[in-house]
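Q:
My hope is that you can spare some time for a protein that puzzles me. I hope you can help me see how the letters and the tokens relate. Thank you; the sequence and its tokens follow:
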Amino acid sequence: MNLALESALAKAGLQVTPDDFLSLVVDAARRLAPPHPDPASYFPPDQRDALADVGLDLSPHRVADDQARARTVVVHAVLRDSALTVAEAARQLGVDTSRVRHRLGVGRLVGWKDRGSWRLPAWQFAGAGVLPGLEVVLAAVPEDQPPLVVAGFMTGEQEDLQVDGYPTTPRAWLLAGGDPRRVAALAAQLGTPA
């Protein structure tokens, strides 16, 4: 299995050993959700009733949930493994590490703290710079959206963004010279009901 996983990781461009990748997956699975959660057990009866009244599903874990959970865990592990450290981002951008931290602080770059150190998702970088229009897009992303959601949005095809008649990702749209305000308008809707 390690040979197949090693081949898959190489094809994906991930610079990690199969054992290290599997450790990342296990760590992500533990941190994202317990294997058999029972959401109702987290609330007293009156709160459970109120949450159920507004349509929240508090039913226990179902086997059918495993595929989506597994997909989320793998995406999280890949996002974490492909993310840059502050020092790596500074080298790529040709700036001092303090400039990278400043950009993180003012929302001109996105990242998260992992065991006390910043990690910056790779999707926001292009060549020796950042993605064109990145500041416009990040300014529109609601503050409550986690990096995994933002990464999924930026790297997932959007019907409203088309290049040569085909849906494309916000990242590809921006790299092709598309108007960042169109991406920002879509990003502003993250976390809102469809």
Summary: The longest strand covers residues 158-163. The first helix runs from residue 2 to 11. The chain has a mean pLDDT of 82. The radius of gyration is 19 Å.
